[in-house]
Amino acid sequence: GEIRGRTLIDVGSGPTIYQLLSACDHFEEIVATDYLAVNREELGRWARGEPGTFDWSPFIQHVCKIEGRGEPWQEKERRLRGRLRRILPIDVHQPDPLGAPLRPPADALLSAFCLEAVSPDRAAFARALAHVGSLLRPGGHALLLGALGESFYLAGAARLPVVPLDEADVRRALADANFVLRDLRSYAMPPALRTGVDDVDGVFFAHAQK
To answer: Member of which family (predicted)?
Structure first.
């Protein structure tokens, strides 16, 4: 829809590309970011088409089916690889998360299950949101996907803490970071998806504008 432009920045990409599969149709350049070098290296290997990387083809095929345009999945894969031009280190707890301003500022910001997972408390979550907001141009769009009511998740044997958020926390943090909330939707986690790897109650999707 209206969310398109030259540059999209993905905050806290991890080693994954699922969150970028539809976005690559609407932006000329995608900037992926992550705190961990191992994640950035994995993304770089996938973007270069190196052998031995994770096989995202079933996910790409599924997104193409949902979008319903009849596009061959290989074409979407090729387009995303071509538009994933920068993979940068980021620290969302720093006022300049990239260490320097993004040039040009992003037209849109995407972040999926990142800020609440790396923040020790609600205040840190709100500060991190304000920090990453500095990467956007005035009028730029922020798309946030995150967990509600989650206090931990498991990564192998590691139990990693998450700050439990509710809708009011998300609304307050966006307002404090000088965003105008355009849409906020919440979804309860169905029992079939409660697999024991976390204690999440649901997920939220927020669309806000700087």
So the answer is: Belongs to the class I-like SAM-binding methyltransferase superfamily. NNMT/PNMT/TEMT family.
